[in-house]
């Protein structure tokens, strides 16, 4: 059975995007900043270890215009080149009823996300990551997430898209890792207690 992880950068007040889908805070060192080299490498290594990435429409639309060709852009650093290649090669599933087609080693699912995620979890294959607030919320409410990874940036944005959704019952978690990155960014990983 596959392990399903939900991990994203999150503000200290619990948002994955500020109002207007603003992500300028996510680098960790002020507005419109980039993540530290160490944090960027951590995310890149995570992509390399992912057997299958599950994307909601909005996250797919944010990632797909940039990463497929980022390694060929002028001034691309070795880290960006590595990440772009890893991202492009990683198998992906996009869940959307409004997108007509996807590419870059990606499959489109237009049906019920929870049903498909259950089917994918039952496979004997590598770990899965899920990204996107709406898609992750559906998996969270269905009890499908095995691990939560919060990369907390020390900024308060006061509103936006929350990392966690409203739940019908408590989910008990066990801390399995914590780590500090430059700029006061803190990684915490929690496993769901079953």
UniProtKB/TrEMBL annotation:
Domain of life: Bacteria
Gene3D superfamilies (alphabetical): Dihydrofolate Reductase, subunit A
GO molecular-function terms, A-Z: 5-amino-6-(5-phosphoribosylamino)uracil reductase activity
One biological process term in Gene Ontology: riboflavin biosynthetic process
Pfam families, sorted: RibD_C
Residue span(s) of domain Bacterial bifunctional deaminase-reductase C-terminal: 2-187
Full protein name: Dihydrofolate reductase
């Amino acid at each position: 059975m596959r392990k399903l992880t939900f991990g994203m950068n999150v503000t200290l007040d619990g948002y994955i995007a500020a109002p207007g889908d603003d992500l300028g805070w996510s680098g960790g060192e002020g507005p419109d900043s980039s993540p530290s080299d160490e944090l960027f490498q951590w995310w890149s290594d995570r992509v390399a270890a992912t057997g299958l990435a599950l994307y909601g429409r909005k996250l797919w639309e944010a990632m797909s215009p940039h990463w497929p060709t980022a390694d060929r852009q002028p001034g691309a650093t070795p880290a960006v080149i590595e990440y772009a290649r890893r991202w492009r090669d990683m198998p992906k599933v996009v869940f959307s009823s409004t997108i007509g087609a996807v590419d870059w080693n990606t499959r489109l699912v237009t049906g019920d996300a929870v049903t498909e995620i259950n089917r994918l979890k039952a496979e004997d294959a590598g770990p899965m990551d899920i990204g996107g607030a709406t898609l992750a919320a559906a998996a969270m409410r269905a009890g499908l997430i095995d691990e939560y990874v919060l990369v907390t940036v020390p900024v308060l944005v006061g509103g936006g898209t929350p990392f966690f959704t409203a739940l019908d019952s408590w989910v008990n978690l066990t801390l399995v890792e914590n780590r500090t990155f430059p700029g006061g960014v803190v990684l915490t990983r929690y496993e769901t207690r079953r």
